[in-house]
Amino acid sequence: MNNKRISSLVLVFAILISGCDAAKAGNNVQTTSSVVATETAASESTAPSVTESTAQEPFEFNPHLYSGKIAERVPQDYWDSFYNLCDALRKGEESFECSSQDAYNWATDVAVLCDLFPAAGAKIEGKSTDGSPAFENGKGKIKYNMPVEDFLKRESEFEAMITDILNSTIEKDDTEYERALKLYLYVAKNFVYDTDLVANMDNNENYVYACFKEKRGQCVNFASVYAYLLLQAGIDAVSYRIYEDLCHAWTYAVINGKGYHIDTTWALQADGVDGIYLDYFMMSDKDRIADGCALNNPDVTLLPEINVAKTNVKFVAGDDHYCIRNYCKFRSLDEEKKIVHYVDLYNEPKEFYYGDI
Question: What pTM was computed for the model?
Answer without folding.
Answer: 0.87
